[in-house]
Amino acid sequence: GEEEGEEEGEPDADLEEEEEEEEEDEVPTADKRLAPSSVVLLDGEDDLLRDRVLAMPEEESKGTHNTADGFKRRIARYRDLNKPGAIKTGVAWLEQGCRLESLPIRVHKGMDEADVEQEMRLYLERKGRPYNFHPTPEEMAERRAARAAAQAAAEAEREAERKRVEDEESKVRDAAHEERMQRLEAIRREEEALLEARSQPLRKYLMAAVVPTLTKGLLEVCRAKPDDPVDYLAEWLFANNPVETGEPEDEEDEF
User: Fold this and answer.
1) pTM higher than 0.70 for the full model?
2) Alpha-carbon radius of gyration of the chain
């Protein structure tokens, strides 16, 4: 009886193992409400990835696995877990569990980033441009108009401020020029007054000692009408010099 029980139990064990294998091969289902709308799979050549890791600054890679040995270990682990046909990966969950059409891009040395961006843009816009998180064209036009109006207002305000500053500076310059001209005029009047004051003694002397005799000499020239008036006047002054002739001078004419 025991042998029969053992024989009957063996099929149950095999069935459990098969069920476990089926569970392992089964892709977990996903809640599509949590799934993205697009998936871009970026993969690169091992040499390219290694060079980028080794090019990292030492202060960033220090104390991490971003070393030659660390990269070699991790890339081998990644390649093993994501080999073709693997179902326990994020890519399998997105493609099979979420039924998403992914875009794989193999990055290599010398690849033009513009081509990659163009390929990604075409993929992301395959069902229309994604405007769900962006403003509508009308809203963007309104924002551009508002920015333009704000810039124009700011420019007008800057221009008004510049003109105000220029006007104030012009007023200050005009006031300084007016003040300078007033000082120069005051200095000119003071100099004229000083010159007038200093010329008074000389004027008194001329009026007292020179002008009377010179006037008489000029009258004599007019009366005689000589051929050489200048020489005649000079001779007359020498002959009628009151100092040499000893003629008395009036006290009021003394200098």
Assistant:
1) no
2) 58
